[in-house]
Amino acid sequence: MKKNIFILIVSFCIVFSMSLFSCKESIEESNPFHAEVLYEGYEVREEFLMKNITRNSCFIKLEGQEEYLNTHGEEFSTEYLYILEDEEEETNIFSSFNISIDYKNETLLVYIFTSYVPRPYYVKRSYMDLGVLYIRIMHESMDPFAPGLSAPLQKCLVIKVDKTEKDDVIILRG
Fold first, then answer.
1. What's the CA gap between 82 and 159, in Å, rounded?
2. What is the reported pTM?
3. Residues 108-134, buried b or exposed e (16+ Cβ, 10 A)?
4. Are 55 and 76 contacting, i.e. CB atoms less than 8 angstroms apart?
5. Segment holding 154, helix H or strand E
6. In this predicted structure, what is the pLDDT of residue 42?
7. Average pLDDT along the chain
8. Helix or strand or coil: residue 27?
């Protein structure tokens, strides 16, 4: 009887460890286009953010007024994506940009969306399918004692990715 229980426990441990390690993708396999979210080295122009206000986000007017803009209408999109292929496009979006980007081998994405999560985001996965580059972003796990959600905010992420032959880019959240 003890031998049967021992064999059962050992078998369970082997099966569990095999399933755990076989399902885990390496970083290179899950992100072959080396996409990464950049958080430092740039400042986005306020005029650019105002032009790209996202739906339902709490956005304060710029001229020092503490009045919120009504962003609930259909004229506001829930997300905007800009694909920067050269340095000339940087000046329209950034007031300062101190990041070295090799535009021959890299592309810069500026993704603006309405977020209910006040935590930083990271790239979980990138892949190509039928000429479309998909990038899945996730927010960092939260401290169980920290507040989980916030008022809807306009979030602007800058993502650096390897240059590829693509027809389109789609950012997936969650």
1. 10
2. 0.78
3. bbbbbbbbebeeebebebbeeeeeebb
4. yes
5. strand 153-162
6. 94
7. 83
8. helix
